[in-house]
Amino acid sequence: MNSLTADNLGKCFYIAQGRGRDASRGNIAGRVWARAWGRKGERLPSRQVKEFWALRNVSFSVQPGTVLGIIGPNGAGKSTLLRVIARVILPSEGRVVGIGRVVSLLELGAGFNPEVSARENIFMNAAMYGVPRSDVVRHFDEIVGFAEIGDFVDNPLKFYSSGMYLRLAFSVAINMRPAILLADEILAVGDMAFQERCLKRVEAMAKNGLTVLFVSHDMDAIIRVCDRALWLSAGQTKGIGDPEEVVTAYQNAAWATADVARSERGRHVNRYAEILNVRLVTTAGKEVGAAPASEDVFIRIRFAAKTGLSQVRCGFDLYRRTVLLFRSADHDPKEIGQVGIYEAWGRIPAHFLSEIVYTLNAFVVFSREGKEMSLVVHNALSFMSYATEEPSTFGQRLLKDALLAPRLEWRLAPLANAD
């Protein structure tokens, strides 16, 4: 018997058209109209709202003990799928049938109250999943031990670093003894040692019947941990099956589609060059899914020069949602005279990013025969910056509320001869 079955699953959102008050009214009218008419697109006021299908015709089944990896580019519908299965949002069409307790690990600290201690949050979170208090008491030491927060278990969570938040969230979720675990990119947060502990724990519990749906951009983890892989693109299923085969097909397709527009501006490939991939890497060159705030990280842009290029300049734009925070570009154009594959590394210094999720666009600007052209990959990366330090009782939340949190040099001195 399958532990989880999705049948012709679809999720449609309605986007307001126009601006200002008219857009707001249109959105409300669209929602009311959609509910009244069963979300049939042909009956929606066409001038007021627009349909956006985040998922469409998605069907699959998962047997107990299976780890299903879900892959795809940003905006493919991966997180929407998990939220539908977790019953955070309702599907617009189709249905999902699951057996047993479903525990979701979709957002950092979701369901936690930052004003109270970890101890209180553990019991409250368990109650949300219907876990008896006696079970929590029995597993309490195991939860705290796996999260490595023993010295701070009675501290309010608002003083925890994002790394500590993650460890606690994962430990609570996995110790709720779920039948189905939903894990989003949150598992990319945390030091490498903790990530390995999480993956090993998931593997061990899967052997005892736990079903896991695991969303990740880490293809190595998908191949290593998962029994099957589901590839989503534009809300639809592109492939499902053996992880290695699906990952290979996804990676081959990711950069194979060239823009056929006449203009060669704003594309990731043209007849002169091609951006092959963009990765977040450590100083040692290891690809990671999140940036430790206390360490240098690099944006690595790998591109192929198909013909001789005279000069190349690489860079990226860093965003928080739709807000452009800054643009960084190599201020010294590099000379390239030979055909081949090249890498450009842009450093983001330690203690510069805040504890939030960022996205970035990557670009390569080059000149040939006196003509300047550019290649661009929009939404090339999405990653979170996280802190691993022990909690602070002073000023910790200031860093979590900011878009950037550079550690600048400060001086404090008494003012001489002051009245």
Question: Would you kindly provide a brief summary of this structure?
Answer:
Helix content is 25%, strand content 33%. It has helices spanning 20-36, 78-85, 118-128, 133-147, 162-174, 192-206, 219-225, 243-254, 396-401, and strands spanning 4-16, 49-62, 67-71, 93-98, 102-105, 180-183, 211-215, 228-233, 236-241, 273-281, 290-292, 297-305, 311-320, 323-329, 334-335, 340-348, 357-368, 371-386.
What share of residues are in beta strands? 25-35%
The side-by-side strand order for the widest beta sheet comes to 5-6-7-3-8-9
Instruction: Report mean pLDDT, rounded to a whole number.
Output: 82
Bin the helical content.
10-25%
What is the strand tally? Answer: 18
The 3D shape can be described as globular
Structural class, from helix and strand content?
Answer: alpha/beta
For the sheet with most strands, the description reads:
6 strands, mixed
Q: Whole-Å distance between the termini?
A: 82 Å
Radius of gyration over alpha carbons?
Answer: 24 Å
SS element count, helices? 9
